[in-house]
Amino acid sequence: MSNDHIGAGAQATPEPLIIPLEECHTDAAKRLWSERFECDDEKADKWLYNARIDTDYVTQGFVAVDRTQVVGFGIAAVGSAEYANNYVGDALDLDVPDPTGILHILVVDADYEGQGIGTELVKCRLQWLATTDAETVIGTAWHRETHHDSRALFAKFGFERVATIEEYYLKTHGHTDCPDCEAECRCDASVWRRDQ
After folding, report:
1. Which of 16, 156, 173, 175 lies at 20 to 30 Å from 139 by C-alpha?
2. Out of 47-61, 102-116, 156-170, which region has the weakest mean confidence (pLDDT)?
3. This prediction's pTM
4. What CATH number does domain 17-195 carry, 3.40.630.30, 3.40.50.720, 3.30.1340.30, 3.30.450.20?
């Protein structure tokens, strides 16, 4: 399978093929992640490795493929309540059970947004999480005015917004992985929850 990123004007198949993340997808997923959100290479490598290899983390990655091109990907994980609270950071204290599912990164190629790929990636990750012991699923939606974000997807799948936090990444993790912010990310975000 090619690891190349699609070009402008490409057309998606009516129903994207969603498959588990494999090693042959990692370069394309990392490139897509960097193009859409910027990312620290070390962090991306760690997440993409854990999402396809049996490690101490219960993690699964999925990719959306159009023909032979990766046009989206998402990662889901299962962790303790402490892990879930570390994920959302110090700005919020979640009352969640052990274990809790987490919808991590969701990235769709800009040329393919609005074609149902994000929906299919959320659906597939929730189906995978339903096979685990996770009773609750959480996720965050990064609010960026120039981009689609996952707030509508969370609502579509029955999640409830727990909180909206101004300058979320600055307050929680100090991320600099934001192409819209020149230094530390000052974007707002919302935290979402769904009980299985």
Report:
1. 16
2. 47-61
3. 0.85
4. 3.40.630.30
